[in-house]
Recover the amino acids of this structure.
């Protein structure tokens, strides 16, 4: 009897705690400040004065006001924070913690690159030797100095481990520290090392002292060792990562800049939307496209940024297997897709029709390149020339299951092809199964392979080489295209890109025209990114070279 | 001796079940079309990187050799490495499991506190309005999809009333200004043990909606099971004797009758606990609750087989052990249950 009474008392006490604790949640401060300090949005010049605010050592850390905290409601986990292996969405964190030698500027900037840890650089005539002159007075967050030895260590270590995008350094044969602040790269073949050095993965410079002392798991637990403006303070996997200022950052600190960054992880788009609308978060993305118009109309305190990304959607045509081994049939197919209807009806603001392989905004993109349009009469003419006046073809298109855009693309296209007597079998499969089928014997593979492409390294060559250069064993050339003239043109363009980017750009545009003439693939659309930020956050510039990254140091409230 | 033999026999079966599940999941993970080596390397791997990763991950070995190393590592407490995050899975499980356990235990607590009293009263007042209402609640509880209820609760308590948070385990302000010293990973416990009452209150507020959402199914089951057992027990002669002897009705119901009626409910609660471990996957995603559910969802989306296999195995172990525990409890409480 006593036992039962005790149980009920305990239950009663806990219930009463539950009820009494149900008070309203403390509201977060989201008022827009009356004074707004604006920081220049593009920082492409070398700072002439480097103001370093001395570290203030307080015995107890003061409570940071909401105004000084930048909250990024992030739609996915941050899987890998190791500066070598980081190859995914985790770049939103690493980009605030680590720095590269050069920085790839957003589209529309005067120069493609600007200085970061290197203040200037030069190469020999054939771009096989590169010399970078380093910024002085920079320290890593562990207090060790940044110098030529640190650069040599970081790049060679990344190359040695070979994880993630480490292959970008494939051309590097040897690195010499000429003096404390001069480093020389000797390449085994010509490559645009200044561009490579700006990559958002695998090009980070990190402290040898810390990296030698700790395994990659230590970094994944929430530690970093870069020269960047913010350090990781705490990390609860799957929940939240907090960064705090590195007080001795070489760029110095100005009033209005954020003291802390919180990456608040939520996979549910509705929670992300609620957080940005309520002011709990300052920045987010991956909000359902259908809700964006409503946010624009009803939330003047939220700014919606929609900008081109460097990602595009393509449909590779099987150039080895009949009937698509006939260029006339491939050209006909290129005229059957209703580009405008698809973009307006399915993609909305999220895409624009592609012009060639290289996305708009990236160097090497050709604004004057030929663009296929929806023209069934033209398609019928071409099919007649190819010997298929009444169609009668059966084609298989594969796409990645779960991607509704790709699925709808298939359904729309199927209806159009049926008008010409072509039967399109739209098959959704897991990415692995789709890729496995694509890599198998081309004669048994799909006719059309739909997929996205985005660059690891911001160079047209990654698009033109990765997807269209001849391959002995198929990996990414899922068109099975082989054209020695094309191969030579892009390889030469790549060599040229180290020394004469303008000339290289022309060669890459010429190569794209070959692909369009041969109708190797359908270039459906270039995708856009949509980001949402609170209106009181100033200085955000979307840079597709670093997808979804916010360089918080450049922002203020 | 009888107990020892029974326990040994059941443990042997449990081990066989676990081995079978490990073989099935391991084989499925290796047989279906996927390339863990390519996924390990990154977005656009080269042939050389894939070949190197295949050797590093031991994927170039025969399947049975891979299984041998897998089991050997498991016995050493090494669950392998996540392809997606490159983190040791054991360390990830250690991080995520307490969050899920906290949520599931809170849900079980709610199920007990609400389900048992309602079941008892419903059984005692069979045919009354209370009985009909309780049966309605129990049917709604077992049939309502958690994802729908979760969204509804978020809309009402966060969107409309603004009195409860929409998701996550802790608010940003509290995480920053009153961080919890992690001892067990159970935030409620850790904050209470360290006297961090600001965080305790915040954690409790964050726990209410997801735990209630997860509790609806067990509440329904517990009500139904308790009610039907009570109806049966209340017709027994000893209950009639107790009432004739003038023992207060409350004692008759909650002590004399419930003691015998609770046994099937305990079984249901145990099974609900394991069910909730997997049911928590949806609830965790809806409420951004960084537990095993969110971890598994990420793994499924990234086709991270080592993680999927390990989580399946962990849940199987829970299931087998809890089943065993339930049988032992039942045998201890009910003399009619044989250990043969």
């Amino acid at each position: 009897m006593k036992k039962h009474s005790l149980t009920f008392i305990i239950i009663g006490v806990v219930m009463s705690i539950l009820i009494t604790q149900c008070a309203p949640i403390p509201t977060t401060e989201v008022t827009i400040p009356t004074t707004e300090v604006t920081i220049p949005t593009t920082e492409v010049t070398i700072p002439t004065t480097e103001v370093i605010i001395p570290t203030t050592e307080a015995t107890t850390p003061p409570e940071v006001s909401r105004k000084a905290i930048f909250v990024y409601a992030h739609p996915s986990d941050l899987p890998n924070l190791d500066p070598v292996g980081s190859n995914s969405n985790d770049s939103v964190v690493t980009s605030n913690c680590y720095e590269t030698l050069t920085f790839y500027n957003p589209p529309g900037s005067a120069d493609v690159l600007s200085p970061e840890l290197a203040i200037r650089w030069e190469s020999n005539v054939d771009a096989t030797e590169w010399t970078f002159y380093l910024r002085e007075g920079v320290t890593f967050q562990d207090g060790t100095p940044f110098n030529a030895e640190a650069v040599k260590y970081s790049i060679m270590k990344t190359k040695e481990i070979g994880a993630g995008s480490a292959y970008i350094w494939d051309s590097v044969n040897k690195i010499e520290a000429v003096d404390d602040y001069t480093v020389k790269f000797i390449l085994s073949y010509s490559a645009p090392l200044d561009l490579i050095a700006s990559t958002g993965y695998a090009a980070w410079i990190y402290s040898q002292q810390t990296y030698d002392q700790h395994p990659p798991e230590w970094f994944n637990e929430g530690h970093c060792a870069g020269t960047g403006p913010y350090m990781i303070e705490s990390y609860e996997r799957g929940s939240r990562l907090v960064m705090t200022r590195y007080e001795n950052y070489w760029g110095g600190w100005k009033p209005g800049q954020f003291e802390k960054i919180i990456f608040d992880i939520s996979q549910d788009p509705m929670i992300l939307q609620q957080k940005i609308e309520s002011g709990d978060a300052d920045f987010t993305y991956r909000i359902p496209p259908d809700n964006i118009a409503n946010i624009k109309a009803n939330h003047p305190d939220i700014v919606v940024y929609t900008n081109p990304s460097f990602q595009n959607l393509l449909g590779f045509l099987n150039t080895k297997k009949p009937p698509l081994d006939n260029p006339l049939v491939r050209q006909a197919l290129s005229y059957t897709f209703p580009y405008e209807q698809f973009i307006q009806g399915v993609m909305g603001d999220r895409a624009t029709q592609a012009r060639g392989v290289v996305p708009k905004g990236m160097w090497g993109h050709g604004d004057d390149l030929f663009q296929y349009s929806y023209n069934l009469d033209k398609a019928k003419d071409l099919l007649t020339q190819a010997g298929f006046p009444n169609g009668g073809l059966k084609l298989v298109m594969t796409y990645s299951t779960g991607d509704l855009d790709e699925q709808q693309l298939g359904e729309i296209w199927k209806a159009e092809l049926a008008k010409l007597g072509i039967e399109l079998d739209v098959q959704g499969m897991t990415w692995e199964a789709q890729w496995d089928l694509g890599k198998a014997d081309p004669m048994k593979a799909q006719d059309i392979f739909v997929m996205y492409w985005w660059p690891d390294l911001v160079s047209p060559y990654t698009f033109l080489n990765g997807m269209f250069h001849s391959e002995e064993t198929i990996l990414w050339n899922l068109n099975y295209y082989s054209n020695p003239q094309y191969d030579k043109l892009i390889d030469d363009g790549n060599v040229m890109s180290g020394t004469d980017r303008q000339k290289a750009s022309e060669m890459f545009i010429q190569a794209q025209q070959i692909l369009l003439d041969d109708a190797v693939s359908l270039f459906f659309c270039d995708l856009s990114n949509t980001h949402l930020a609170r209106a009181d956050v100033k200085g955000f510039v979307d840079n597709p070279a670093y997808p979804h990254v916010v360089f918080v140091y450049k922002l203020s409230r | 001796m009888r107990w020892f033999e029974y326990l040994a026999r059941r443990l042997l079966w449990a081990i066989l079940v676990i081995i079978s599940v490990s073989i099935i999941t391991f084989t499925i993970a290796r047989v279906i079309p996927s390339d863990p080596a390519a996924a390990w390397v990154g977005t656009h791997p080269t042939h050389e990187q894939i070949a190197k990763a295949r050797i590093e991950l031991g994927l170039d070995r025969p399947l049975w050799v891979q299984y041998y190393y897998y089991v050997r590592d498991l016995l050493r407490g090494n669950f392998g490495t996540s392809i997606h995050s490159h983190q040791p899975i054991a360390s990830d499980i250690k991080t995520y499991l307490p969050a899920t356990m906290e949520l599931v235990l809170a849900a079980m607590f709610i199920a007990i506190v609400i389900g048992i009293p309602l079941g008892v009263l419903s059984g005692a007042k069979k045919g009354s309005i209370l009985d009909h209402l309780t049966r309605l609640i129990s049917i709604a509880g077992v049939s309502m999809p958690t994802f729908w209820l979760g969204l509804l609760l978020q809309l009402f308590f966060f969107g409309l009333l603004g009195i409860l948070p929409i998701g996550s385990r802790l608010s940003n302000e509290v995480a920053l200004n009153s961080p919890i010293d992690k001892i067990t990973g159970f935030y409620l416990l850790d904050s209470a043990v360290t006297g961090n009452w600001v965080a305790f209150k915040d954690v409790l507020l964050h726990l209410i909606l997801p735990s209630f959402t997860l509790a609806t199914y067990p509440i329904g089951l517990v009500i139904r099971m308790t009610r039907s057992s009570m109806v049966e027990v209340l017709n027994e002669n000893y209950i009639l004797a107790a009432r004739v002897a003038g023992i207060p009705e409350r004692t008759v119901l909650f002590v004399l009758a419930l003691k015998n009626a609770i046994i099937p409910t305990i079984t249901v609660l145990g099974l609900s606990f394991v069910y909730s471990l997997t049911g928590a996957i949806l609830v965790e995603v809806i409420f951004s609750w960084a537990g095993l559910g969110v971890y598994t969802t990420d793994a499924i989306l990234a086709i991270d087989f080592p993680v999927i296999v390990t989580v399946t195995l962990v849940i199987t172990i829970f299931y087998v052990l809890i089943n065993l525990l339930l049988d032992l409890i039942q045998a201890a409480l009910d003399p009619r249950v044989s250990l043969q």
